[in-house]
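Pair request: fold both.
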Amino acid sequence: MSSTLSNQLETLVDDTTPENVNLKVRVLDSAGQRSSESLLGADLCVVLDIEVAPLIRVRKGFLVQAKRSKGSGLAYKHPNEIAQDYGHWLWRPDAMMEKSGIITLGNPSELLATQCRDMLQVTPASYVWVYGNHPVAVVSAKPVFELYARPERSARIELGTKRLDDFFVNAIDCFIGDPAIVAWDTESLLQQCRIRRARFGALVSVDLPTRQAADR
């Protein structure tokens, strides 16, 4: 992950995070075959701890793989370059935010597809952040991974995006995030991967016995 993206993220966190939100960002180590990134596919693990009231608390997280635009098969299109009017934006009372643009994607690189697959095995709350000389654009890892199976030389697909600040607003509003991701250490994340790979599940139902009138 580039220092440019790290600086943008730090500025965003400092400027927009409410006092009742504790946001932790871990940059995963990437050196070596047994590094956290090689095991989990992610550059970042983000955990949000939101205390709405003394007895109401929400903890959740998500994974991120960051890629530079025009690399790994990804390319950013500015809203002015889009024929259809479907760039995402978030309306705010004080301003209408600039649209976020789109990501065009042919066949993602094998590395990016593998990274998306590995993240999705940990949590469905996995995303690709595309950065460059434009606002950071956020797309879900799921369609990126699924596009890898397309035939070569397929026509490019356009994916709608969220701006990074809109993405965090949605996360704090509880539209984004996985409540199973509450710890960011590698072993905890790998444990989620093992749980989600389970071949069988069990549903346990417990019925309380009906109490007799004499017991009341």
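--- second member of the pair ---
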Amino acid sequence: MQLISERLAMRPVVAQDRETLMRIYGDPATNSFNPAGPLANLDEAQQLLDRWIAHWQQHGFGNMALTQRDAPHAILGFGGLTLREFGGRPVNNLGYRLATHAWGQGLATEFARAMVRYGFEECGLQVIDAAVRANHLASQRVLEKAGFTVNGHVYDVPDASASLTFAITRAQWRAAQGTPQ
């Protein structure tokens, strides 16, 4: 399975993504707004990747590797839709992390829009949520451009301030697309 947008190609994560996952998720710069901090080593990257692959196997959707369409072997980042809990409430969470060289090009917004479309059209989800640190303005703008609105907050990282929560419903998305409910 592969998703294509204007500039991006997205495919489910695979075991061979471990080193790239470590490079991106282990980079302190990509974790500037992550109170948990970067991954420390390849073992942590492997554990995260194993959870992502298990999520795909259990739910039929999950995190993906993102590449540019014209450079399919160079991973720019990872992200996708996963089942999580926000304050004890189950949610379909949109998350992503891009390598620093991919920042500032509109790729996160393009990815978020592609994931929203995929979540509603292919996965049949009724709502998609996201959590963003209150001081991470760039990610907040990405979500807003993808149609999300702030709907609350959640204490999602122990001993850290709350994250803002965002959501978009299938009905909101369809209305913005001009598609009948």
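Observation on the second member. The longest helix spans residues 42-59.
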